[in-house]
Amino acid sequence: MKHAKDKRISAVNQDFSRYDQVKKDQLYHLAEGADEEQFDTETEIKSCDMSLFFHGGEDGKQQFAQELGQAMAGIGFVVLTGHGVDPALYRQAEQKVCEFFKNTTLEQRLKYKAERHGSVNQGYFPMKETTIIHPDLVEGWVFCRRAFNIGENPAYREEEFWPAPGYEAFFRKIVLEHEKLILPIMQSILRYLGCDPHLYDDKFTKTNFGFRLNYYPPIGKQDLESGAGRMLGHEDVDFFTILPAQSVDGLQVLNRENMKWIRLSPPDGSIILNTGDYMQRISNDRLPSTTHRVGKPVSKALFGKPRVSIPMAVYVWEEEVLEVLPGLGEPKYEPISAVKFHTRITSKYYGDDYAVDSDRT
Ligand SMILES: [Fe+2]
């Protein structure tokens, strides 16, 4: 017997536009469809060498800022090289994520089902439950800053956040490495926009983040027939996302110039960086939040392999206020508390009662 097709699979982003807190004109299907899709094979995602920032003196910082800013203002995705994070760490991470999801039982994982902490929905997202608007073929887990033992909470207990020992210590290394990149990236973006590069230094010191482990199991026959995508088309809610390159392809970015999807194939050891809604809001639409999704790998030979990704979304703490940066023209947006902004958008994914309407958390 054939199952009735899940209506959510044919949904488009504009069905949910009432939740958006920045202007988004683009129209796209949440899931990668079979025939109607168009791919952009011409446009290249730019690479930016971060060693210019770290070792290139004032000129290097200036050059990196221009290159990064232009890429962010265009496609909104960039491949970072020269970032200084050991690529061996990323290779180990793929292994660790697979172990994490395979060596724990569903029952163990369900004890940590995601709940709102401040702005962030932290914890476990079962298969097909990453959002309520599309049955994504992925299991995920979000850890925010409080889930890591980084010496800021004397009452910290690992078992409060992690279903098995050993993983926190490993992933903490990655989070701390990525934390070193946050200020250089933001300072470069602010420099490109003509603002004081240090305007966000305080807000981004020990700031909150959402570090996500995504485990996409091998694609079976039923999954293929369902038409569901691995991860729905979306824009990140954050300032920017730091995403190490994955060994199994599938990430696609929407080119808003021609409304075709670009398949990313970044080199091993590189980091993909993209802008999100917070950035679009404070940059007065100069740096748009970028639409992306995860489809099936190009080669069917990879359907039998799991796919792993570990994006880190950079936020400010929920009581901060998001204001359009100075010198970027007449503000198109009112100041808004981060928690209101964040949860109004994400109630699209988690239900209307997720939204926090007061400025308190
Ligand atoms: Fe994303």
Number of helices: 8
- Element string (H = helix, E = strand): EHHEHHEEEHEHEEEEEHEEEEEH
| Hetero groups | fe (ii) ion
Q: Determine the mean pLDDT.
A: 92
For the termini, the CA-CA separation is 48 Å
Strand content: 15-25%
Low-confidence stretches: none
Counting helices, strands and paired strands, the structural category is: alpha+beta
Number of strands: 16
- Helix content percent band: 25-40%
**Largest sheet: number of strands, sense, barrel closure:** 10 strands, mixed
The best one-word shape is globular
What's the gyration radius in Å?
A: 20 Å
Overview of this protein structure:
The protein has 361 residues and is of the alpha+beta class. It has helices spanning 51-55, 57-73, 87-102, 106-110, 167-192, 221-226, 277-282, 338-350; strands at 47-49, 77-81, 115-117, 120-125, 139-144, 209-216, 231-235, 240-244, 251-255, 260-263, 271-275, 291-294, 307-309, 312-314, 321-322, 336-337. The strands form three sheets. Strands 1, 2, 3, 4, 5, 6, 8, 11, 13 and 14 form a ten-stranded mixed sheet that branches. It has a four-stranded antiparallel sheet with strand order 7-12-9-10, with no helix packed on it. Helix 2 packs across helix 5 (167-192). The mean pLDDT is 92. Fe (ii) ion (FE2) binds at residues 234, 236, 292.
